[in-house]
Amino acid sequence: MGRADLKPARRTRLGVILLVAALHIAVVVILVRAFTPEFAANIAGSLTQSFDVPLDPPPPPPESTPAARPAEPDPEGAAGAPGKRASPRPVPAPQAPVPLASTQAPPIAGSGADDASGARSEGTGTGQSGAGEGTGSGRGGAGSGGGGGIAAKPVKIAGDINSARDYPRESRDLRLGSQVVIALRIGIEGQVKSCRVVRPSPDAEADRITCRLTTERFRFRPARDAGGNPVEAEYGWRQRWFLKGGA
C-alpha cells in the first residue's frame, strides 16, 4: 500500500480516539453531579466568588476659605428733609374784547331833487316815483348793499311804490316830509325774502306798509359771487313822502 492510503486510516483512528475520550469525560461529569452535588456547587461557587480589592482613600476636600467681608462704608451725613415744592402763581388769562355789533343802514345809491309834479330826477339808484294825487305822492330812492365775497350786487328790475293811495289818508300829515330806510334781503331767485326797518319814519304804519309793498312788488337780478353763482345779499331802499308843490 502506498503512503496516500495510510493518511485516511490515521485520521480515522484519531477521530475515534477523541470521540472515546469525550464520552469518558461526559460520563465522569454525570457521575460527579449525580453522587456529589455539593462538590460541583463548591467548584462553581469558587469560580464565581467575588473578592474585595483595597483601594486608597480619596484625598480630603480642600478647606474653603471664608470670603472677605467688604469694608463698611464711612458713615455719611443724613439727608436733609425735602424742600417744599414751589407752586406757580396762577396768571389770569387775558380776556378778549367782546365786539359790539352795530346796526348800520345799508348804503343808499343816489337821490334826486323834488319838483312840483311829484317826480324825481334819477341819480345812481334804480328807484323811481310816480305822479301824486291830491296833496302828496310816494317817492323812492334805492341803493344796493352786499356782504363780503359778492362780485355783482343785486339790481332792481321791476316794481315800484309811487302812489299816495298806497298809504292811509288819515296819517298823511304825520309822514309828509319824512322818509323811511329799509333793508331788503334778496334771494337767489330775485325775490324779496325779508324786510327790516333801519331808519323809521314818524309813521310806523307807513313803515310796515312800505316793507309789505316792496316784498310784493319788487323783483331783482340776484347778486353773484366771483364764480358767477347767485347768492343772497341785502339791498337798501329809501322811501320818501313829500308835498306836491314843494321839496
TrEMBL record:
User: Where are the membrane-spanning stretches?
Assistant: 12-32
- GO terms, biological process: transmembrane transport
Keywords in alphabetical order: Membrane, Transmembrane, Transmembrane helix
Start-end of Low complexity biased regions: 65-85, 109-119
Q: Where is the composition biased (Pro residues)?
A: 55-64
Where in this chain does the record put each TonB C-terminal domain?
165-235
Q: Which residues form the signal peptide?
A: none
Q: Where is this region: Disordered?
A: 51-148
Q: Which SUPFAM superfamilies match?
A: TolA/TonB C-terminal domain
Q: Where is the composition biased (Gly residues)?
A: 124-148
Q: Which Pfam families match?
A: TonB_C
In terms of superkingdom, the source organism counts as Bacteria
Keyword Acetylation listed: no
Give the principal location in a single coarse category: membrane
Q: What InterPro entries does the annotation carry?
A: TonB/TolA_C, TonB_C
- Keyword hit for Transcription regulation: no
Q: A GO CC term?
A: membrane
**UniProt xrefs under NCBIfam families:** tonB_Cterm
This protein is called: Energy transducer TonB
Name the source organism.
Answer: Novosphingobium pentaromativorans
